[in-house]
Amino acid sequence: MRYRRIDADRKSIGIQVVYPGDIIIRAPEEISSEKIQETIENKKDWIKEKQQFFRNREKATDYEFYDGEKFPYMGRWYRLKIRKGEPSLKFYQGKFLARSTSKNDDKTRTRELRPLFLRWYNQRAENSLVKLAKKQAYIFEKDIKVNIYDLKISWGYSKQGKIFLNWRLIMAPKDIQKYVITHELLHQDFSKHGKEFWNRLDSYVPKRKEHEDWLQKYGKRLDV
Ligand SMILES: [Zn+2]
Question: Which of 21, 129, 193, 209 might form a disulfide with 125, Cβ 3.0–4.6 angstroms?
């Protein structure tokens, strides 16, 4: 099975399956590719199950991937331009430029472009969301691991020494991303949403209410 390898500061091999079924391996540099193949082989059933789950996933939003439709990224909506050709997607000069084998057939376009959008968003999240979270963690003097995750019902999630961020957050404005990250970082000290938790959070993020309102209003559209 093909996979993407990320060198990681950890002792064991970590396997993640991300949309639309890509395998991501996190492992220390000294671990050989044979060892990784072996681990993948041992986890084959689990990986297949995950990949199947993504394949079965229902359409999350009403996006139709037509020429001119707008998609969110970092809190702004950008227009999609479609040309005929082998399916591809890139973001260039404030536009999503895509190719699809059919410009007119909704099903074909969706089938071809949706996975490309999902992959694009996930890659952006793996890059800039993780960077932003690491920066925030540094400011808060927290030594934590940051994981991008396909969270179904929340924007973030915190565990001892780790935070998990929903990849869809890459679609939200940076202030909102920062708010969610700060929220999760604070959970490293407070597991529950108690009075002190909110007091502290409000002191770090004075516009918390506004951010929560924004997520309430637009959150459902942050998906593809
Ligand atoms: Zn919370």
Answer: 129
